[in-house]
Design a protein that fits this description.
With about 80 residues, this protein is largely without helices or strands. The chain has a single domain, classed as 2-Layer Sandwich (Herpes Virus-1). Helix content is about 15%, strand content about 10%. It has one helix spanning about 35-45, and strands spanning about 25-30, 35, 65. It has a three-stranded antiparallel beta sheet. The relative contact order is 0.19. The structure holds zinc ion (2 copies). One zinc ion binds next to loops. One of its GO terms (cellular component) is nucleus.
């Protein structure tokens, strides 16, 4: 129990994977932690901090993340 992978693609509120679109699409807070949109919106309607690191957060700090477009760009020349 509790040994499921705490990978980078799992919402820490509901412990299910987020998606690229829809209610549970991936979003982040100012601290950089990622959540499903529907989960963090509900969470922040009741609390004022990140569920992962307790950094102060408000619903307006929620940022959409376009996960499918996240590509590491090598800027070294
Ligand atoms: Zn969730
Ligand atoms: Zn955080």
């Amino acid at each position: 129990e509790g040994e499921e992978s705490e990978g980078n693609d799992t919402c820490m509120i509901c412990f299910e994977q987020w998606t690229n679109t829809g209610e549970h699409r991936v979003v982040c807070l100012g601290c950089g932690h990622l959540f499903g949109a529907s989960c963090i919106q509900k969470w922040l309607s009741e609390r004022k901090h990140c569920p992962t690191c307790n950094h102060a957060a408000k619903r307006r700090d929620i940022r959409t993340v376009y996960a499918c477009n996240l590509v590491a760009v090598d800027t070294a020349e």
